[in-house]
Design brief:
Pathway: Cofactor biosynthesis; coenzyme A biosynthesis; CoA from (R)-pantothenate: step 2/5; Cofactor biosynthesis; coenzyme A biosynthesis; CoA from (R)-pantothenate: step 3/5. The chain is of the alpha/beta class and 224 residues long. It has one domain: 3-Layer(aba) Sandwich (Rossmann fold), CATH 3.40.50. 28% of the residues lie in helices and 27% in strands. Strands 5-4-1-6-9-10-12-13 form an eight-stranded mixed β-sheet, sandwiched between helices. It has a two-stranded antiparallel sheet with strand order 2-3. Strands 7-8 form a two-stranded antiparallel sheet. The protein is globular and about 65 Å long. Bound molecules: cytidine-5'-triphosphate and calcium ion (CA). Cytidine-5'-triphosphate binds next to helix 4 and strand 9.
């Protein structure tokens, strides 16, 4: 309990954080991606390190850079690479937080050469990517596991279903319904739901402040 007062309550804890989008290749020059900026995951990494945690930040392509002695940045591109990087360190971490906007589908075949514009209509067959968070839930031993959920309907019910399906300890539900929340924004409106389905709606606030709220949940897990 002494460390709680020292302001480094997460000293000695190892935290895996995923961030950013993934890019799924179509051919050597094209990909399927999304508008995730990576900001939420990077803000969580910063907050965690400032509380003394040692962080492994596995990030898809973003323009953010971070320089902190306690943050090890692992850059990946595709969902498969993110999956591999997460499982490489998962056994060694105390907490995992999945803030990445992982592509749900990827092209089934990647063209070896740049695709030429010959056909008038062009269909790309997609296959599911691996669900990284689901796999972390299945492999969970001692880890405190936090996921995000992005829903546009039946938000609370769908988020609760994700808690059970992915064996989570806590989910951070993102509300897109509010102006000023979500992708490419600096603010977020979230609701926390824990594994007992205790539901806590938060105010609209900066992503830095949301990151601090998330780390407070992590601290509470270790100290209560
Ligand atoms: N996630 C993941 N790997 C995937 C897809 C999602 O790790 N291939 C993680 C995200 O990082 C997030 C959580 O799963 O923490 C929920 O993502 P979300 O897109 O809301 O849910 P999905 O399970 O992908 O289901 P759907 O998109 O159909 O709602
Ligand atoms: Ca998804």
């Amino acid at each position: 309990e002494a460390d709680l007062e020292s302001k480094l309550p997460l000293k000695g804890k190892k935290i895996l954080i995923t961030a950013g989008p993934t890019y799924e290749a179509i051919d050597p020059v094209r990909f399927i991606g999304n508008h995730s900026s990576g900001k939420m995951g990077f803000d969580i990494a910063k907050s965690a390190a400032n509380l003394g945690a040692s962080v492994i930040l596995v990030t898809g392509p973003t323009h953010y850079v971070i320089n902190h002695s306690l943050i090890n940045v692992v850059k990946v591109t595709s969902a498969q690479e993110m999956y591999d990087a997460c499982h490489d360190c998962y056994n060694a971490v105390d907490v995992a937080i999945a803030a990445a906007a992982v592509a749900d589908y990827r092209p089934k075949n990647i063209a070896q050469q740049k695709i030429k514009k010959t056909a008038d209509n062009f269909v790309i067959e997609l296959e599911k990517t691996k669900d990284i968070l689901l796999s972390l839930g299945e492999a969970k031993k001692h880890q405190f596991l936090i996921g995000f959920a992005l829903e546009t309907e039946n938000e609370i019910e769908n988020a609760k279903a994700k808690i059970r399906k992915k064996n989570l300890d806590l989910i951070v539900l993102n509300s897109l319904q509010d102006e000023g929340a979500g992708f490419q924004k600096t603010t977020n409106k979230v609701t926390f739901i824990d594994k007992d389905f205790k539901t806590e709606p938060m105010e609209l606030k900066s992503k830095e402040a949301v990151a601090d709220d998330i780390l407070n949940k992590v601290i509470a897990h270790f100290y209560e």
